[in-house]
Amino acid sequence: MPFEKIEKLTDRQINDLHRMYQKEWWTKGRGLEDVRRMLEHTDVTVGFCDAESKRLVAFARVLTDYVYKALVLDVIVDAGSRGQGLARALMDAVVGHPSLASVEHFELYRRPELMPLYRQWGFSDDLGDLCFMRRVAPCVQPSRDQPAGDL
Questions:
Q1: Less CB within 10 Å around the terminal CB: N or C of the chain?
Q2: Of 133, 25, 26, 42, the residue nearest 14 (C-alpha)
């Protein structure tokens, strides 16, 4: 099935994205209105849709200052469309996006088993003395994968 690259989602494609989010451990439970608000405040979006039906089948988003940092988030391919090179097409579109051409550092979250995939675009987990930290907002309930408790 041929795919078409898009950089802005239609209302129907936002619903497709929400549906895809509900099937993944890291995005399950995101509300549709929150997804809409998130997209309004995302700097760069890249997606692929079925050329005929226009159904969204792959998506990634980037938060950036367009100079120093670009954080790649939510790289997702619909389960029924995996194995067709869409993850590669998404990452090529992100790192090759014209508005991100002068960004010094691209960063992303990833599972350990996906490191070989992202190394193809020059990503490394060798960060020297840098360490990742997270603060969960008090009003946000911890997920099942994230233990609650004090330091």
A1: C
A2: 42
Kindly report the pTM of this predicted structure. 0.83
**Where on the phi/psi map is residue 128: left (φ > 0), alpha (ψ -120 to 50), or beta?**
left
CATH superfamily of this structure's domain 3-119 = Gcn5-related N-acetyltransferase (GNAT) (3.40.630.30)
Structural domain spans, the chain: 3-119
Phi-psi region of 96 (alpha: psi -120 to 50; beta: other; left: phi over 0): alpha
Kindly list the averaged pLDDT for each block of 10 residues, start to end, along the chain of length 151.
93 98 94 97 98 97 97 95 94 96 92 84 83 78 49 40
Q: Comparing C-alpha atoms, which of 72, 128, 68 is closest to residue 102?
A: 68
